[in-house]
Amino acid sequence: MDQFYELQQVAREYSESSFFNKIELDKNELQILITTLEDEHCIVKVCENGWYTNKSAEYFPTFESLANHISPQFQQQWFAKVNERLHAI
Q1: Percent of the chain surpassing pLDDT 70
Q2: For the whole model, what pTM was predicted?
Q3: The domain 3-88 is classified under which CATH number: 3.40.50.720, 3.30.2280.10, 3.40.1190.20, 1.20.120.80?
């Protein structure tokens, strides 16, 4: 698994969106610094076991599942975007 690639993809995908107040890739520490829409700060990392934060020992299979867990407003925005794309089909 290429941790840097995974982190870079997520940071790029969500950097120009309204899903977070702030999302920043820390290349040196191989982590993403996030400020949620609820103004919670956390550090996100990825490994073979999945995605996790500095605030929990729980692993998630995808970044989106982790983000849905840590931010109710992310979850609302994400589901709205999925529905929007489905209706466009």
Answers
A1: 100
A2: 0.87
A3: 3.30.2280.10
